Amino acid sequence: MPPRDVHSHANPSETRVRHLELDLDVDFPGRALRGSATLHFERRDPSAAVLRLDTRSLEIRGAETGAAGGFARAAWELAPADPILGAALSIPLRPGDDRVRIEYATGPGASGLQWLEPAQTAGKRHPFLFSQSQAIHARSWVPVQDTPAVRVTYEATVRTPPDLVALMGAAGNSTGAPGGVYRFRMPQRIPAYLMAIAAGDISFAPLGPRSGVYAEPSVVPRAA
């Protein structure tokens, strides 16, 4: 058994998350991400009866457990918060469960999210959101096993106001065309600290067949 990560409340030696599905709305007036996270996990210990995740200042609205056949409401417990590590979220599991779905919202002070007012942007017209998950800030915007010992694939649906663009550190990024609904997929396993999200008035300039620059429209030409 590998040594326990003292910066995480998670229990990956018993139940380890392997895939994450996010469904999120970007609420600029409320400075929050709202939606759900579905976590697919494996029981490394066949007798494991709890999935324990890292959170920090998340509003947990409900939890479900299930398998391919569907979900059922589940109990959940949020432990007292540590000022640095946040609070452990524990969800009891039934025999046969291999996934949990958590309804939640981030707080306006989420340590991994930066919310800019229009006046703080280059264009001065729209708000802007960007994330910084390293080192242990992913837990402030997604309930995860926030340790480099756990690596996951993920997919996400992100909704924004229709005139703004969402990006993530994953395949599926747009070329700057607004639309309000964006879908992403990360097929490689990555640790939570590499998860990234941004939303705002964003354009794209290609630099070659496999590279390009994202930035506010007024910045893109100089950045490219």
Please describe what this structure looks like.
This protein has a single domain, classed as tricorn interacting facor f3 domain (Immunoglobulin-like), CATH 2.60.40. 2% of the residues lie in helices and 47% in strands. It has one helix spanning 220-223, and strands at residues 15-27, 32-43, 50-55, 59-67, 70-73, 77-78, 87-92, 99-105, 113-116, 128-131, 151-159, 165-168, 181-191, 197-200, 203-208, 211-215. It is elongated, with a radius of gyration of 18 Å.
CATH superfamily: tricorn interacting facor f3 domain
Number of domains: 1
User: Could you name the CATH topology?
Assistant: Immunoglobulin-like
Global shape: elongated
Strand order of the largest sheet: 5-4-8-2-1-11-13
Oligomer: single chain
Reported for the largest beta sheet, the result is: 7 strands, mixed
Indicate the CATH class. Mainly Beta
Give Rg in angstroms. 18 Å
**Poorly predicted residue ranges:** none
Proportion of beta-strand residues: over 45%
Share of helix, binned: under 10%
Q: Please state the second-level CATH architecture.
A: Sandwich
Which class of secondary structure composition applies to the elements? mainly beta
Tally of individual helices? 1
Write down the overall mean pLDDT: 96
Q: Number of DSSP strands?
A: 16
